[in-house]
From TrEMBL:
It comes from Psychrosphaera ytuae. This is Deoxyribose-phosphate aldolase. The gene is deoC. It catalyses: 2-deoxy-D-ribose 5-phosphate = D-glyceraldehyde 3-phosphate + acetaldehyde. One of its GO terms (cellular component) is cytoplasm. One of its GO terms (molecular function) is deoxyribose-phosphate aldolase activity.
Length: 259
């Protein structure tokens, strides 16, 4: 196994295999759950809109994929739903069997200084998740006006007691970047290494995944990287990793490592 294949194997088990498209159907979600298992093992989770949580759980269980988690999203993607709507969505997702809820930080409100609203969203979402469902907070790093907001939002979310901080919705022009990941991983390292990190949006190749994994190794150590601490939110990374593991790819198809 090459070094890149070793990273591809590691990345595969860290994927939140995502389908968050407005035209998703029940069949899309069944196909997503089926794709969650590969010859090289299964992904960490599938990530779907709230209305598909129960279907995803039922489908994964029928396929014998009981260890694959179901993640969903709230306040997504704008970050501008009311607190009441966010908590209603969270309660329903938990009741339907969501293992993880990815809530969008009200990032525009955060940058305007409305920290009280942001705190309410995060702490009340965490309370609604209870002690069995993880709360992952999407900072939307690509929309932050400068890097200081990425650091501040990461630290704010960690202080609010969330389980993961996540870069992006995948729905804005700039999604996961190594620069944002570096700032967020540093915030985790300094403030609470029990908090996890999720790189999401635009990650499509084995070499890109390797770059994020090497960054996390450098910041928090190899042993820190496991599904409890590190995820890739991605809709089209899995196929590239499997091709890499099959030895089917040329160097250009595995992408360029930038770290
Ligand atoms: O949270 C995950 C993202 O929405 C996935 O983005 P992607 O479709 O660019 O992989």
């Amino acid at each position: 196994m090459s070094e890149l294949q070793a990273y591809a194997q590691q990345a595969l088990q860290l994927i939140d295999l995502t389908s968050l498209n407005l035209d998703d159907t029940e069949q899309t979600i069944i196909d997503l759950c089926t794709a969650a298992n590969t010859d090289y093992g299964h992904v960490a989770a599938v990530c779907v809109y709230p209305k598909f949580v129960a279907l995803a759980r039922g489908t994964l269980d029928k396929l014998g994929l009981t260890d694959v988690k179901v993640a969903t999203v709230t306040n997504f993607p704008s970050g501008e739903e009311s607190l009441t709507t966010i908590i209603k969505e969270t309660n329903k997702a938990v009741a339907d069997g969501a293992d993880e809820v990815d809530v969008v930080l009200p990032y525009r409100a955060f940058m305007k200084g409305d920290l009280e609203h942001c705190e309410q969203v995060l702490t009340k979402s965490k309370a609604a998740c209870g002690d069995k469902t993880l709360l992952k907070v999407i900072i939307e790093s690509g929309e932050m006006l400068d890097d200081s907001f990425i650091k501040a939002a990461s630290e704010f979310a960690i202080d609010c007691g969330v389980d993961f901080i996540k870069t992006s919705t995948g729905k804005v022009p700039v999604n996961a970047t190594l620069e944002a990941a570096d700032i967020m991983l540093a915030a985790i390292n300094t403030n609470n290494p029990n908090v996890g990190f999720k790189a999401a949006g635009g990650i499509r190749t084995a070499n890109e995944a390797k770059s994020y994994l090497k960054l996390a190794e450098d910041k928090l150590g190899k042993d820190w990287i496991n599904p409890a601490h590190f995820r890739f939110g991605a809709s089209s990374l899995l196929g590239n990793l499997v091709d890499c593991l099959n030895g089917k790819q040329t160097a250009s198809e595995t992408g360029t490592s930038t770290y």
